[in-house]
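Below is a typical protein record.
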Amino acid sequence: MDKEKVDKIIQYALAVAAGEDDFRCRELGPIHLLKYVYIADLAYAERNGGQTYTGTNWQFYKFGPWAQEVNSRIEPACLFIDAEKRTFPYKNGDAEGEGVRWKLSNTEVRDKLENDLSITVTSAVKRAVHEFGADTPRLLNYVYLTKPMLNAAPKERLDFSTVTPHMQPDKKAEKEPMTIKAQKRRTAELNEARTRIQEKLAQKKIAACARHYIRQPRYDEVYFAGQEWLDSLAGPQIPMVVGEVTFSPDIWKSSSRFDPEIP
C-alpha cells in the first residue's frame, strides 16, 4: 500500500467536505474517510485495467470494504494538516464507545492535493463527498453494491478486475456527413415524432381534467361477513414461531447478488 497516496486521499476528502454548504457534512468520521479511499481506488481501477491507485488490499468485512492499513492512516493523515478532532460518546444497541469526527478549517491545502493526486481520484472523491457527505447509511449502501463487493464473500479479498473498464471515445471515428435526402428524411421523422408526442400530451391533459366519481364502499354487516368468509378461505392462521435461519455460504457467489435481471 502506498501510504502517501492514502494520506493524500484522506486529506483531500476532508478538504472537499470543508467546502460543503451543509455544515453537518463538513465533519467526517473514520468510516467515511476509509470508504472514500475505497471509492478512489474503485474509480482508478475502472480506468486502469483493475489496478488500484493506492495498492491497498481491500477485504469484504462486515457490511463493506475494509482495510486496517488504511484505517490506521486516518489519524496521522488528519493531524498532519491540522484537522480538528472531535470525540463524543455513542450507544448502538448494547454497544457503547467513543465516536470520532474530523474537520478541516484550512481549505488552502485542497489546491495542492488536487495537483498531487490523479484527476480520476479527485473527481471520484469530490463527487462522492458531495453526494454522501457524512450520511453513513447511504455511503455504506453505495460501496456495498459495487462490483468488487458483489463478487466477493465475507473475509475475501476484493478483486478490482471485476469493474467495467472505462471506454475512451475513439477520436478517429468520425461521423459521415448526411446527404440532403437523408437530412430531409431525418427532419420528417423528427416532425412526426414531435406531433405524436404533442397529441399524447394533449390526451393526458384532457384525461387529467376529467372528473371520475368513485362510489364510496358501504361498511355494513354484509361487508364484514364477506371479509370474514374470504379470510376463512386462507385456512387456519399461521402460528408465530421464533428461530434462527441459516443460509448456505454459496449465496455470496450467487448471481442474484450482481445480476440485475434476477429479482
